[in-house]
Amino acid sequence: MRAWIGRGIVFGLLAFIILGPLANLVLWAAAEQWYFPHKLPVVYGTKFWEQVFKPRGDALVSLVTSVWIALATVAASLALAMPAGYALARLKLPWRTAILLAFLLPQAFPSLAVYINIARLFYDFRLNGTMTGVIMVHTVHGLVFAVWITAAAFAAVDRELELAARNLGASGLRTFLTVSLPLAAPGILASAIFVFLESLDEFTGTFFVGVPDVITLPLLMFTASIAGNYQIAAITALVLLVPSVVFMLIIERFLKADVLSKVGA
Amino acid sequence: MQDRGRLGVLLVAPALAAVLVLFVYPLGYSLVTAFQAKGGGFTLGNFAKAFEFYSVDIGFTLVIIGVSTLLIAFASIAVGGYLTLGENPRAVALLRWLYRWPLFIPFVVAAQCMRTFLAKNGLMNNTLVGLGILDVDQTIGFLDWRGIIITFVWKQTPFVALLVAGAMASLDRSTIEAARNLGAGRPRILFEILVPQVMPTLLVGLILSFVTMMSVLSVALMISGESPTMMTVDMAFRINNYGDYGTANALGFISYLMTATCAWFYLKRQIR
What we know:
The complex is a heterodimer of chains A (265) and B (272). Chain A folds into 2 domains: 1-45, no CATH class; 55-260, MetI-like (MetI-like fold). In chain A, 76% of the residues lie in helices and 2% in strands. Chain A is built from 13 helices and 2 strands. Chain A has helices at residues 2-30, 47-52, 58-90, 96-102, 105-108, 111-124, 131-155, 159-167, 172-201, 204-209, 217-226, 230-254, 257-260; strands at residues 31-33, 43-44. Chain A has a two-stranded antiparallel ribbon. In chain A, helix 9 packs antiparallel against helix 12 (230-254). The longest helix of chain A has 33 residues, at 58-90. Chain B starts with a helix and ends with a helix. Chain B has 11 helices and no strands. The longest helix of chain B has 41 residues, at 45-85. Chain B has helices at residues 2-34, 45-85, 89-99, 107-117, 123-130, 145-169, 173-181, 186-215, 218-223, 231-242, 245-271. With 272 residues, chain B is an all-alpha fold. The interface between A and B is large, with 80 and 81 residues.
């Protein structure tokens, strides 16, 4: 019993530190009026929710922009990563380790300093302030997850099954499409989710490359927060949180231990 | 066999080209621009200007990220250790449920949470006052460089702890049991048996965190946009207000150096 009193204090403190900031966000999202010296919101209500979700409002436009960019980023990443991942897992490659590490580069350098230069170079190609420009930046940043996880997923496919298909007379392409690809599908889906979230939550790259025309949800949230519209910022933040929390709950279903142990190997 | 090798290169080429064109080239461009005068010749003037205006922020960036990294290391060892050595299954399950929350929360959202939570009249102080621990006029806000550290530790600890706890769980239990039978206490088992064995994983997690914190702009802008703050804010300011790529890239070069030093220590340790 005494042990639980000590544990209670420690866990209470931990819960306060971890969940407190989130609770504050939820309170702001539900508040209509909240000012000093009141410790809790003075008036609760949905006025700001209606404002955020009104048809053709800024938030809805940004949400659609964000989702389109994220979907296009997933498509581009997978188009690049699936062939590369298969080659890294199954084919003989010179400098295989160096190639694997090359995809880590965008995560190994502080990216802000690179983004400002991408923005400057994009200027010459009229890619600044376009969705295409933002998608390109997001794709390269997410490529490490896409390539590493797809390579691990293909590596985890039982080689015997592929050989059996070949022995029964299936061509290389047919074996890939009917055996390797379906078996690697959960891992590929996991990498797609990773890339989707990375893109949806990305701030710095969009901040430099997307301005002034491409305003994604994180940028809208930032602008609202700096302007002091805490209700709008909190509601937008909650919308951004939904996919993250859902992902946290289901990730283990897609990313099995046998794939996980082969990531980066 | 020759054909398969060529096919492999062909399949990897598009992805590799994307990294070269959209990352390596701009990276090289930033390195060159850092040493280039407005007219085009070689100069160290950009660095002189960077140090003249921003030496305080360069120092604070090091302090903020250094302290955050240390705190993240201790917190994730503590979490991983408790998950591995904890004797009460219900308490372990509770911690496992609790510690992961910030893992997938975007930095912008984390910054917004903390911007309200850590303010002078935010929920943190309101709760402390409500519980009678603090008086209203004793409250202080943390929306400065300390707030940046708190946000980083809050956001990055779950990531490192996840890696560390995973590595600890896959260790051989028999050494732990043997030490326990010889009468070693749990802290001793943690620091003398578990931590040395998971050191490589811990360091990889910390380096990835270090680089991430080095590039995050939103947290510094939203928690404390005024000096002393982080170099990322200064870089954004040079670009957006003056179009001054020279100084911004000089600051960028300094941030590469900081991460490179960190990576060098890691590699040196790995090779030894």
